[in-house]
Amino acid sequence: MLSKSIVPYMLAVFGVALLRSTINYGRALRKSFFRLPPAVLVQVVQTAQQCEEALRQLLATCVVDGVSRPIVGLDTEWRPHTKAERNKVAVLQLGNDRVCLVLQLHAFDAIPDALKDFLSDSSVLKVGVGIMHDAKLLLQDHGLAVRGCVDLQSLAYKHGYSDTGNSLASISLTVLGLRLNKSYQLQCSDWQVPVLSPTQIEYAALDAYAAHACVAEMYSRHADSSESVFHFCEVYVDRRPVIGPAAPGKVDKVARKKAHESTYSQRIPQRKGVLYENCRMVSPAGEVLCTCNKKKMQWYLDRNLADLISEDPPTIQLRFKPAGRGHADDAYYLGHKENRCVVCGSETNYVRHSVVPHSYRRWFDVTLKSRSSHDVVLMCVRCVSQATVFNSQLREEIAAETGIPLEGRGPKHFVDARVTALKQKASALISGKTTLPPARREEILVEMRAFLNKDVVTDDDVAAFLKTPSKVDNPDHVPHEQLVVATLTTPDAMFEFVRRWRHHFLRTMKPKFLSPHWDPDRALEFQLFKQRQALASSDGVSTDSVDAEPDDCDAVQAEDSPGSP
To answer: Are 360 and 391 spatial neighbours (Cβ–Cβ below 8 Å)?
Structure first.
């Protein structure tokens, strides 16, 4: 039997030994984590002024011995969110095997154009795990459009490296044999501090370095000798990730959540066929009046109103003199148009996009929108998603300048309190069939019979009533857009409003495949509007706005003529 006085002493000795063992294990574990190679230059960028030079250095390393390697790792960090708010992206990491940049975006007084151009350049591939989610946050928080994104998870899954998981740490361990320090204390540290700690800097730089290194290693193992890095990744550029199963017994929640929250998974209805068929319509004198689709062209041919005079491009010549000249001499409307996104050039998943949002456009005078498609362009779903975010920023500016709130005047809906209360009672009739007291059940039925004006209320009546909406439209509500357009009392004011949206589109989206004849300062429709308004004023005719939309034809048609559909 041990003396009672010895027991505390033995416990103390055991505790000290356990503490030493834990400390030694932690030191050994830290030593086993991969450290950034000394040859890698790490730059912490704290101001917008430093950013341009840092990006120039990074781009210079993308070319080695005359061979272009336009690929960088990308990741983001932010201060941990709270239940009350989501914190913005504080740090952006960009890097390769020679330079890693840690950009403290939260400290920038303004986002430099050099960074906007770099991230929006689709010829420079950006790789990372859940990178589409990072792109979404950068766009929402800082107005930075990121193009050329490649999710590392997709490449890992394709080449058989996702068996142990889909996180950056798992893929790095499988592909490179490197263990990354992904401790909770580092991941969830305060990334909005004015000065990052050395540990934070290395952690941030390693994420970008490891993402680039994984792609470089997979490229060296699996690419053909003549295959470029861009071609190796091409099928996954700006696409949702293809994620393999997590390791047995593991659920890679972070990677899966990032993929699920991708900005570009929005369900936007897409066109099932081409928009522009570039068929031409000419007058009896041989003057090109407009372009149209094949259906329109066939309509004229079937009625012997025109003759087919060319098949390439498809061209018909009218047999009658049209009432007007259509869009003769208008280079934009008569020019050949491509069926691809005007921003990135994608030839799939494109939709019609209004440069001036439809919510404003619908309140324009009919002269400015009927048979006018100058401000309707083709864009892919992903670019539309980005444009929507940028448009919301300009909408907020317009609301602040005009003093017209985005909610408009008056509430959009009213909640019918009686319907809401009665629906709660009606649900009890179904859920509490066996437990609801008969007296209470009859009381609810009496109320429902009175509300529905029926002598007998069946279970089907109750089920149908539960689908009745509690919200009703407010007939006195006036939307923000209608109020804004109402302030544009002159053609010149209307033109400046449209011109502002056009230049906003060019500045934010930087379209690379827009028709060379598309002119942000085009004023023809506004000149016609001014003439029509002057004529109406002299005749005493009202020019109130009418809700009309341009034709579905791939360009405006000729002036209405006998037999025109």
So the answer is: no
| Helix spans in 282-328 (H) | 294-302
Q: Give the three-class secondary structure for 71.
A: strand
What is the per-residue DSSP string for 443-504? HHHHHHHHHHT-S---HHHHHHHHTS-SEEE-TT-B-HHHHHHHH--SHHHHHHHHHHHHHH
Instruction: Write out pLDDT tens, residues 182-220.
Output: 887 788 889 999 999 999 999 999 999 999 999 999 998
pTM, two decimal places: 0.59
CA distance 408 to 395: 12
Cα of 312 vs its chain's centroid, Å = 38
- Closest C-alpha among 325, 326, 367 to residue 541: 367
Q: Where are the beta strands (DSSP E) in 348-503?
A: 350-354, 376-380, 413-415, 471-473
Q: Is the peptide bond before 565 cis (omega within 30 degrees of 0)?
A: no
Q: How far is CA 484 from the centre of its chain?
A: 25
Please choose, from the candidates 47, 35, 49, the residue with its C-alpha nearest in 3D space to the C-alpha of residue 201: 35
What DSSP designation does 249 have?
A: T
- The number of residues in the chain equals 565
* Strand, coil or helix: 422: helix
Residue-wise pLDDT tens digits, 50-79: 999 999 999 888 865 455 668 999 999 998
Cβ-proximal residues to 18 (8 Å cutoff; 6+ apart), any chain: none
Question: In angstroms, what CA-CA distances link 530 with 158, 312, 326, 374, 501?
Answer: 60, 39, 19, 18, 20
Residue 415 near residue 471 (C-beta atoms within 8 A): yes
